[in-house]
Amino acid sequence: MRRMPMRMRVGTSGFAYKEWRPSFYPEELPDAKMLDYYAKRFDTVEINNTFYRMPKASMLQNWTKQVGSDFSFVLKAVTYLVSMKDAEKRASATQAFFETAKAMGKSLGPVLVQLPHTLEKDLDRLRALFELVPNDVRIALDVGRASWLAEDTYALLRERGASLCIVDDPNKKVPIVPTARWGYVRLRGVEYKRGELDAWVTRILEQPWEEVFVFFKHEDAATGPKLGAQFKKLFAARASRR
Taking the model in full, what pTM does it have? Predict the structure, then answer.
């Protein structure tokens, strides 16, 4: 039986960068039009500032009005959802975060949970977090410590339908371990040659995912959008031959 084509979404970590003029954004483009311009070229984006502070629901709703119905926002979970020591306060903060996130409606994609580099494997804490997340919200887990890269972690992710965040970074490598029907890949290098991008296309197409999110790093020189556009072309060309 032939497998259904994999849906690939590609974007960058953030979009509101004045430094991307004129490499990506036209020089005369107003700041308020950046998201509209970006969303005509990519179909997903990581929102990084939610890692530090969750915006108001009204701002999230305003973002959704600037994109098409198929666009997907990935919110990075506020850091204290995992790092806060008081379990009761952590639970309250988690519920508040996801209640606000609901304002995005169908435009809300996965939520990226980035674990602190100081946090060793603690499956009880991760399980408690999962229990507070609405069932219809997809979770991608970006681990900080190597102790998390273990079979019992993968088993918990599969149980929840959460995806292990695959990371390619000069200082951090996370193996490709499928734990959900969808994948999440962060390519954090500043420069990728065509052959390196093509190798990542191959790795991704080998996975059993139905959908995959691929994000490139923000750099002032706007290398992220450039690499993202190259990656989209390579992926489309390869996928059409399968």
Answer: 0.94
